[in-house]
Amino acid sequence: MNNTQPNNPLHGITLEQLVTELQQHYGWDGLAARININCFKSDPSIKSSLKFLRRTPWAREQVEQLYIRFISQHRA
User: Fold this and answer.
1) Vertex 61 angle, CA 57 and 62, to 5°
2) Cβ-based neighbours of 4, under 8 Å, separated by 6 or more
3) Domain 15-74 adopts which CATH fold?
4) What tens digit of pLDDT does each residue of 18-50 get?
C-alpha cells in the first residue's frame, strides 16, 4: 500500500465510492438536506452527481468534508 498520505482519510477512495457510500447511508433526500446542490435534489443519480462534482470544486469539497465526518462517526 502506498503510504504517501497516511493521514488523508480520502486517500485511495474514488469520488464514485465516496458518493455511493454517502447515498446508501443518507439517501438522496438526506444528502440534499446536508448539501444544497441540485444534483442531489433534482432527478439524482450517481452518474449525474459525479459529472457535476468533477467540474464544481466547491461542491466536491463539501461532499468530501461530509464524507470525512461520516467516516469519523461510523468507523471510529
Assistant:
1) 120
2) 11
3) 1.10.720
4) 999 999 999 999 999 999 999 999 999 999 999
54-64: per-residue pLDDT in tens?
999 999 999 99
Collapse the DSSP code of 3 into the 3-class scheme (helix H, G, I; strand E, B; otherwise coil) and give the result: coil
Dihedral angle sign, alpha carbons of residues 47, 33, 28, 10: positive
**pTM for this one?**
0.86
Domain boundaries, the chain: 15-74
- Helical H runs in the chain? 15-34, 38-41, 46-54, 57-74
Please write down the long-range contacts of 67-76, taking CB distance under 8 Å and 24 or more positions apart.
Answer: 67/9, 67/10, 67/13, 67/18, 67/21, 67/22, 68/9, 68/10, 70/21, 70/22, 70/25, 71/9, 72/9, 74/25
